[in-house]
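Project standup — Tuesday

K.O.: blocked on the structure for the chain from last sprint. Re-posting the sequence here as requested.
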Amino acid sequence: MSGDARRALDICRRAADIAELASEDPKNPMLVGMQHVDTALQEMFSTPKIVAMRLVVTDTIFHLTFNVRTNKTENDNANVTT
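H.V.: unblocked you, prediction finished:
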């Protein structure tokens, strides 16, 4: 099974759990709706591991951009003739 299919099944499984927990009558659980799927998606993409990965990527992009701009400015200044 591919990772995408596994992730989709995990989201559906969590959405079903959320719907079951939201049901007032445990013997008669409510149907899973898009609000449950949305909640499951939000949970999946806001785990500490995912948040940390996003921060690392953002920080890396910032530093790479800064270094490129700094090097470009230094090179431009070195090429200026007086």
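K.O.: great, moving the ticket to review. Residues 47-82 form one domain. Residues 52 and 61 are 14 Å apart (CA to CA).
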